[in-house]
Amino acid sequence: MEEFVKSAIATGFTAYGVSSHAPLPFPTHWTLERTKVSAYLREIGALKEKYAGQIELYAGMEIDYLNEEQNPANEYFQGLPLDYRIGSVHLVYTDDGEIIDTDAGTEGFALLLRDYFQGNLRRLVERYYEASMRMVEAGGFDFIGHADKIFYNAEYCEPGVTEQGWYKELREGLFRRIAEKGLMLEINTKAYLSKGCFFPARQHFETIRRLGIPVVVNSDTHFPELVNAGRREALELLRASGFTSVCELHRGQWMEVEIDL
Ligand SMILES: [Zn+2]
After folding, report:
1. Stretches in the chain below the pLDDT threshold 50
2. Ligand 1 center to residue 66 CA distance, Å?
3. Long-range contacts of range 75-78, CB-CB < 8 Å, 24 or more positions apart?
4. CA 151 to ligand 1 center in whole angstroms
5. Quick one: pLDDT at residue 132?
6. How far, in Å, is the centroid of ligand 1 from the Cα of 188?
């Protein structure tokens, strides 16, 4: 974590949050284990002290919506002393009750689609959106992480699918509900360098602005040197889409900060 903090300071950040993938009820290679949560929070606490005066640091977690028990709103995650919570969907249930990770590479996703959904892309996307909607209903988080991230894999499997009526309805329905709930939405720049896209994609920025949804720009990077990757490009596109400000956490409060390029 310290490497990320040093990189954030070197890049000129005045505030920075670390958000590990929260524990799931089963082990994975990408989530923090529950037994390590207190060490995780202690380490951020120590970094806050060490770098006080140089940068404001925040302890966050990216919490999966898996089902009605395992989600950001549950008692366990609400009880953790976190500065902010991100609600994200990566996992969906198959018809047989198995759990698959939609956040796979394109080839891996195509295999999951074939093996677990008999190639029925619409059904898989619907599952992803059902989970996203239930997460928004349950609440318990500050902003929704990489909404519509599944679009990239879906487009790979069936080019043009994200512009079909049913897909548009799911996506816009989610945006509308986020707006009604008064939640913030992440503009995730993780794939900008490698794939040239944002999550959600840039063509939806105007819809998001029209709905009055406040946005937070994040790199979601797993590499210290990329803490700022894609940020400027995202801010430029947001401004071109009519946004004048983005949300940032300062002195423990979310605030609208003018886009200043
Ligand atoms: Zn994620």
Report:
1. none
2. 13
3. 77/22, 77/140, 78/140
4. 14
5. 98
6. 9
Q: How far is the CA of 216 from the centre of ligand 1 (A)?
A: 14
**pTM for the structure as a whole:** 0.96
Of the candidates 202, 198, 109, the residue with the CA atom closest to the CA atom of residue 158: 109
Ordered alpha helix ranges (H), the chain: 2-11, 37-50, 75-79, 106-117, 121-138, 150-157, 165-181, 192-195, 205-210, 231-240
Ligand 1 centre to CA of 259 (Å) is 25
37 CA distance to ligand 1 centroid (A)? 18
CA distance 159 to 213: 28
**Of 116, 125, 69, nearest in space to 94 by CA:** 116
pLDDT in tens, 158-182: 999 999 999 999 999 999 999 999 9
Residue 37's domain comprises 2-258
CA 95 to ligand 1 center in whole angstroms: 23
Cα dist. 215→27, 59, 94, 188 in Å?
31, 19, 31, 10
Q: Which two tokens stand for residue 60?
A: 């966050």
Distance 206 CA to ligand 1 centre (A): 23
CATH of the domain at 247: 3.20.20.140
Q: Which residues keep their CB under 5 angstroms from ion ligand 1?
A: 88
**Structure confidence at residue 181 (pLDDT):** 97
Identify residue 220 by its one-letter amino acid code: D
The predicted-structure confidence for 76-110, as pLDDT tens digits, reads as follows 999 999 999 999 999 999 999 999 999 999 999 99
pLDDT at residue 261, rounded to an integer: 85
Q: 129: which 2 tokens?
A: 């959106």
The domain tally of the chain equals: 1
88: CA distance to ligand 1 center in Å?
A: 6
